[in-house]
Structure formats: C-alpha cells, structure tokens
Write the structure tokens for this entry.
Amino acid sequence: MKIYCITHKPIDGLKSLNLIPFGVGKTKFPSNYLIENNGDNIAHKNYNYSETSFHYWYWKNILNQNLNNDWFGMCQYRRYFVKYEYKDLIKNSAGMQGYYPYINNFNDLEKILQKEPSPEWNGFDVILCEPWSVAVNSKMKLLKRGIKSIINDPLILFDKKKHNIKLHFEMFHGYDNLNKAINVMHKKDKKDFINYISENNMLSGHCIFFSNNTKLINNFYTDLFDWLFKCESIFGFNLKGYDNQRIYSFLTERYTPFWFNKYAKVKYWPWIYCDITKFKSNY
C-alpha cells in the first residue's frame, strides 16, 4: 500500500517510517522527496490550500495509474493512521484529539503505523479518521469566538446539540464564510451538505484517507476542486491570519467526510497526533 506523508518542510528521519515523503510549498526538499511543483499542479496556491494542494497533484498525476485499485492514501507529518489495537488508548477529547503519549522516537511511531490494508476494510471504499467532538465546553470561548452565531441562535449557549460542525467552522474560520462557500456548491450536494453540518457534532477531519476505489476518488476530487475553484472568486488569496489563511483546506476538511458518507461505504479508523519534527533522527 502506497502512503504519502505530506510535509511543508524536510524532516530528518522521515524515511525511517517507510512512507513516501511528499513536499508541498516553496521549501527546497531532498532528492528522495516527491514534490508538488512537478507535473500538473497548484503549488502556487499551497499557502492557502495547505495539504489540499497535494490532493490536486495526486489526482492529476498519480491516481489514474492505479489500474488494479490497490489501496493507497496519505498522512501528514503530524497525523497518522495507526493499528486498530491502539484505538482505545487514544484520547479524542477537546483540545487533545489524537492524543497518544507513548511515542518518543521514529521507531516507536513506525511500530504502530497502519501501513497495510486490514481485513476489516473488506467491503469498504474509504477509511477516514475516527471522528472527534466539536462541542465547546467553555461558555467563555463560545462568547469570545461565537458571539455572532449566538446572537442568531441564543440556544447555542444552553444546548450542546447545537454545537455542530457549522458552529465550529463559524467560530474558527469566520461567521459567514461557510454560508458564502455553500452558495457556490453544486446543487446536487448543497441541501445535503447543509443538513450534514447542521445535524452533526462529530468531525472526521484532517483531509487524509485510505481508499482502493480509483473511480470513486476521481469523482470526489472532481466535485471537490470544482467547488473550491468557485470559492476562490469569493475569498481570493489575500488572506491573513491562521483562521482564514488556509480556508480552502478548512473547507476541504468539512467537505471530505460529508462527500464520502454520501457516496461511499466508509469505515472510521484510529489515528494519532504526533509531531515528528521534535524527534532526533538516527539517520
């Protein structure tokens, strides 16, 4: 199974994980890295697209070479799918999503990575990250970041069922931005997407997945980038601040689990947050 590890900076020791290192952005990478500014690409948009620019590159340059529908996928240099046996040891509470404290080096991480298809994936099209709750436990945070949403619906302060994906996006990436993006979404998905973000308070995020269905993923990327390119006319590229700078990535993060749950058979899988830039390399 081919797994690409997306990173915006070279990382000593990454090769010890036996993943395919993939460099995005303007940084110069070692010769053993694949980089996105070859072939058909949107590398010049990476500042605002983040890991989503990798997805475009993979779609245009690699996807259709998978004639046998072998399993493939991606991870990020801070987020990885791991073996199912570790599921109950991983915390996904607020502020600690993907928390697993028992990794101190590359060897520890390599041992628990999910790098081969699992028999449990039989009959499924896509493997997504185990979802985590977007409910907000602090009323102070709600008032600080969600005041416009609260003015529109005061019950948000008292009813956690209203702490949905829509509210989470509004709090961290601009109150009206998701509505603006939905306005240019293809009509076949618009109503269903509104229902999805309104009725769900669990998010399978991070824009990573495994799949063995090339045709399905081609359809997904077609719909995704058709939407994102339309969104460019709304948000542009002169975006400032963490909340908005990578807005096309944040939109992708919400659209990905929606689309796959609508059009595919999905299985959720354990993942961890592990920043490997903090490790010392033995290489």
Summary: The longest strand covers residues 2-7.
